[in-house]
């Protein structure tokens, strides 16, 4: 029975996109026609097209110039052009993106310029399409920090909506909710008598920092698994700190913040690690990384995959007692699983004092904190092409950009480096080799000495500075920079926490080329967060449509939560499902179908209809329905040239088989290889007896031949 189903080219999820034209300088219209180059931004940044394009129909400075477009032999089911209108239809989900070439001809008088632009149309959205972003952070409500984990979601990476009514994530969970109590308006504590060891695995309530020194977490960061063994895992790393704790001079009840100096010299040296594979269930770990180096704290932990070692480098900021807590640096640990951590090493000790060249202010230390790193693929598609780094210069609180080819400095012996080892340094004729020698030095002099003490122990100081004047001009209250790549184009976003304004906080700076000096620029509009929801220092990563929708279902599902903001599911491409449903309905009108076939088709229709009603659709599930319908309406038939063969031992005979439909793949198998074997229809007698040889097409078709060996 021949299927009537023919896929239709129907637009899905169209979004207006405008191609830009930049006209080059020219002395006159004639010269301009020959010299002008069209610049279509979507081609430059490999924008995945999801909707129609309005192409330029004029060039500034050349009013008589004419522009014509064509798409050559591109498939008209996906793209066509009429005038300056490019009509785009996305391929069905799971069918792959569609690439084509747009040709442009500019004519001005007798002069003609021809150009071509490579463009790509995005396939329809499926469950595993990277279609949104998640931002993890701690919060700020009415000017005071809520030092617990919060999630925001965004479809464009610029406009963010808080989940769970901007309440802490742990409140969604129920497993250990009864073990947590509120303190004042912004803080929480573990109830007396709680068995903390039993709270490390379960639902979202695991995200509360039960073991915490202060029952607070700050500066969370998200990282996906990159090793083969853990590619489905996601981790959150976070600082163990509540700035309102009494040990620092703060007050949990009235939200008073304690002394930052005390926090940085007598804080927790442990990190929180949260692990999930589904964004619903979590495991929590509490790991000490700073005690072995006499760290004063362990702040803003992040991690990056190191392809050379197939492990992760976890890095974090602190001051250490070895130099009297003179300045902040980055320290690090290697891990393969975020359970077992290697020894602590020094990672990054920037020589910012050398740039300043003088005493800028007292107690600044010229240190560096809040480093964040991101791999960018090379031109050959290697995802680990160049590693970019953003870091805060604490001298005046601005952010700098750097790059390297490797995670670790190839000129430093990582294993034999010692973060506590001082190499004596001579300045102005005096030798400095111990903490006591620093007495009497101002901060600038001290910065020179302590940097030289440890410069040979730093395992990640090989990054090269990239000037970014627009970003560096922002100073005084900037930190917590983090980076991500937009899902649909070659453009990167650097988010910087402007803590000078609790109504703004993270602000986006973008570039299409991180390697290009002074290319990073702050956006002036088109970004923000849901009103009143102020996310602070944290991290962002892209998520799939399935993950995005799961996060909504898990953390925005309680109608009793106040302050919910409207947030929509990402709806997957259901065009193929609709086509399948229509085809099934057509087939059910066929009076030649058996009752069994009709029943099977009705079951397939029910399954297709149920999938079309939910936002997340897996292309594998759609394909399974498609195959089932195909088997019912177009059953496999195998026709053999013989039904039985008789052979003598050692002799062979080939049986021809015809399969309908022809594209079906057939396999052969002998029931008893001691009697006869078969390969591609050639039957060979092995020993006396009888058996059957089968010709098979999956689970859909079967034919057999009786074989007798004399």
From TrEMBL:
Pfam families, per database record: aBig_2, Big_2
Superkingdom in the source lineage: Bacteria
Signal sequence region: 1-23
Record's keyword terms, sorted: Signal
InterPro entries with a match to the protein in the record: aBig_2, Big_2, Glyco_hydro_beta-prop_sf, Invasin/intimin_cell_adhesion
BIG2 domain mapped to chain residues: 632-707
Name of the featured protein: BIG2 domain-containing protein
